[in-house]
Protein 1
Amino acid sequence: MNERHIAGLAGLGVLLALPFITPAYFLHLLIQILLWGFIYTAWSIMGRFGLVSLGHGAFMGVGAYVPALLWNYFDITPWLGIPLGIALSALLGLIIGYPCFRLRVVGHYFALVTLALGQVVLLSIVAARDITGGSLGLTPRSIGHSWYALQFPDKIYFYTIALIVWLLGLFVWRWIDRGIGREALEAISDDEEAAAAIGIDVTREKLRVTIVSAALTALGGALFGQYLMYLNPETVSGIGVSLQIVFAAIAGGMYVLLGPTVGALLTIALTEGLRVWFGASFVGAANTIYGILLILFVIFMPRGILGWLEAARRPPVRTAPAE
């Protein structure tokens, strides 16, 4: 067992002990960090291979609203509603991804398509206000502590669920990173034409990673809604959420396993700090600062915080002196 494995087990032990020694407010923040870290990790599965999506708020919104609506109107347990929301998000990823990848819609054109998708989902939620509550939001029907309804007043239950799901996200990220498809995705990211010329099925590989990313994002959105017990289209879908996802994954380091989680820690700390600092006097502060920081990170630290730290730890490359 090497040092990295020992450090990983020690970190897991600390995470398991935290809910028993952490005040309720900080436990609430930890749950959000784990859930957002999972969502950001799901985005980075696509983003690290050049598939820049600005519409992941669409997948998160579908994943959050489907189980809540099924529960409120048909008394269908979230244990069935969440998988349905995940399936619909995966289908949405397939519907939007297949024509884009077949027609070679790449780069900023693909980003614009996904941006439009996020806004379509947000506007659809707002337009169906008689069902979804529109811009006023939706509150899932509460019945207290219930495994059937996936509702737990005690935060330790949701912390455990969030921790398991977060570990699942890390496992999927590592599985793709070390799988046989990584080389194909990196080749596609570098040059699609050359990748296709050597026999790589470009459409299949890009669809595979898109569907996985969409499904995981929907799962994160569903659990986020179940935890907060309140859904609002501005907080679970649309450009604001999509920009937050992109910023956090890039800021933390989408090429590093724990980078998106560091991004989650950064965004939660930023959001809470701004809430305490500005209160209700500057409602759009978070999104404004996200945009500014995103520009700065892309220019000066494109591999994110953890990526920069990894590069700084590497010994400098020594070049042989000229004869």
Protein 2
Amino acid sequence: MKAIIIDDEPLARMMVKEYLQSYPHIIVAEECNDGFEGMKAIQHHQPDLIFLDIQMPKINGFEMLELIGHPPQVIFTTAFEEYAIKAFDAHAADYLLKPFSKERFDKAMQKLTLQRVNATQAVVDMAMQTAAPSNRVVVKDNGKIKIIPVAQVQYLEAADDYVKIITADGSFLKKKTMQYFEDSLPPQEFIRIHRSYIINASLITRIDLHEKDSHLVLLTTGARLPVSKAGYIKLKEVLGI
């Protein structure tokens, strides 16, 4: 069984390696210092298991998993208690709060025998939805990773199984749902005005009546987007009108 340790703290990686000495059937294929190194190592080694820190330089652990698409089994390791989500205990993937004991580590390893591969993505999605609103969006653009601050996002548009993220630099696709972005973006800054559109509220310049009981919102960029009845109610609440 191949494992990869992804953590920006050398002592934390050393501790995991030391604990793994009790598990001779697990081979550490590589140690990585950040999410970028972790992605390359996962693509190269195709591991069965990764030990993954959350707060790391460049991109965090959750963002790295999003970019992989089909991650291996994951045991999260972090020093930040605010990411501790009770839902982790309901899934095979585990969550270890640093510094964790050998006994707690062994308990996590025991769970691997019950783990199902598709449980990992459910844990990641739940963690992302429970965490604080994101201040950036990470996408792949022609094979490269692009980090988009949410302030640069003009609006989002549903596109079949993807969401199109519109910025001044162009549009980018991400394989997520509109509901995912509605839950993860700052709610006072981004408003779901329609089942197919989420807009940056700071760019609103005008709301026009359009046909009977429907509206259009005009952004400073020139975009004119439809507003549903439910979206109009949200607009009025957020804008105080």
